[in-house]
Amino acid sequence: MSGKKKIGLFGLGCVGQGFYSLLTQANANLEIKKIVVKNPNKQRSVDQSLLSVSPEDILNDPEIDIVVELIDDSKFAFELLKKSLEKKKPLVTANKKMLAEHLEEIFWLQKRYNTPVLYEGAVCGSIPIIRNLEKHYAFDELHRVEGIFNGSTNYILTKMIEEKKDFASVLAEAQRLGFAESDPTLDVKGFDPKFKLAITMAHAFGIFIHPNQIVNIGVDKITEHDIRYARQQGCTIKLIAKAERVGDQIVGFVAPQFVPLESSLANIKNEYNAVSVTGASTGLQFLAGKGAGSLPTGLVVLSDVVAISQGDLYSYEKVRHADNLSFANEGLINICVSFREGEGIRPADFVEFIGGYQAGAFQSLNGWVSLKKLSNWSDRDSLSIIFNTGVNYKTTRSEKKQELTLV
Ligand SMILES: NC(=O)c1ccc[n+]([C@@H]2O[C@H](COP(=O)([O-])OP(=O)(O)OC[C@H]3O[C@@H](n4cnc5c(N)ncnc54)[C@H](OP(=O)(O)O)[C@@H]3O)[C@@H](O)[C@H]2O)c1
């Protein structure tokens, strides 16, 4: 008997391979007993006797202590999570889509089976944000969490702005370099950072919000006209995920924003991610690093596995004290909408119109629009929407007029 904790690993792709190679080099009290993959015919550089295509080889093996789920199928991943917990096997995952869509249920399943799930790798890769929200900020009343939660879109925006490349060619370059998926929709349309934001909101503010409730606007409609306009204002453009407390409500969005060049977020470039946390006691703190990739994410998965093997679990401190908070689904947003002439967008469409700008065939209009209008406009391929810097949310609830600001 080696006395080592035995691991069952699902998935041996980008993150699975990173995790496997780090674990086999680490002097941790852990050992991989079985690896379940989908395609039995792929060439793999691991001991063949470890491989299987049957999930039961992990789930039904009483010797396996911990399950590590690193597959790219969120529906099946949720089935694996439920079965692992039923069998009282703690689970580590990096599957942000699965977590974001089922987090409240996963919270209750952990209680029901008295078995933990850890998932640091799901949010901003190597940046330790979830465990810091859980431990370091557990008793600080947080005002705001915001940041750059997606590396591929940050890479695309950096190249579009600094090297004047067009969206399609930078996307192809990012795919060649492995920063973007072959189907880039989840990244470029802002779904991936929205999943991460939904998970972050549970740990920062204690509320479970299904990602469908959060507005996400991607980077795929940003044009040279928007970039020129940003420069004229002394700004760059970043895809920002943001959640903020406004009174007893939480406001959350993923959208491109004009970010002043002197801001810390403006200097996070290429595939890097960053998160800033603002709390009542801690003030503003800033974390930056690699948000994805085989080794950065594999390392965080390994540290979760070590933590779970030592009995660590999330206490969800904020969930226990969040009774009065709700998610804001109405209010006004301060945006800049840009389009070619003939789109039919007029100053009267704004609740409060601020002003406009025209260059050639392009127009930009600035002002406050309702969340409903924003959501309708975000579905139109011909409109580029960028949140303005400074105050960019106002509640329309009459009893509490409060405002949200961008750092
Ligand atoms: N890539 C990153 O940088 C990153 C960062 C943070 C989080 N994540 C998350 O980590 C997870 C894994 O991502 P990845 O990039 O490593 O994916 P990937 O490279 O596409 O690899 C996916 C792996 O899952 C296996 N798989 C798929 N369906 C399966 C099934 N039904 N049963 C068993 N194995 C199955 C595949 O098996 P085959 O090898 O047989 O095809 C493959 O080994 C995803 O949830 C992703 O969102 C990724």
Characterise the protein shown here.
- The chain is an alpha/beta fold and 407 residues long.
- The protein has two domains: 5-118, Rossmann fold; 131-293 and 323-405, 2-Layer Sandwich (Dihydrodipicolinate Reductase, domain 2), CATH 3.30.360.
- Helix content is 32%, strand content 28%.
- It has 13 helices and 19 strands.
- The strands form three sheets. Strands 7, 8, 9, 10, 11, 12 and 13 form a seven-stranded mixed β-sheet that branches. Strands 3-2-1-4-5-6 form a six-stranded parallel β-sheet, with helices on both faces.
- Strand 18 (391-394) and strand 19 (403-405) form a beta hairpin.
- Helix 1 (14-25) packs across helix 11 and helix 3 (74-86) runs parallel beside helix 4 (96-113).
- The N and C termini lie far apart (55 Å).
- It binds NADP nicotinamide-adenine-dinucleotide phosphate.
- NADP nicotinamide-adenine-dinucleotide phosphate binds at residues 10-16, 36-39, 42, 70-73, 76, 94-96, 121-122, 125, 292-293, 297.
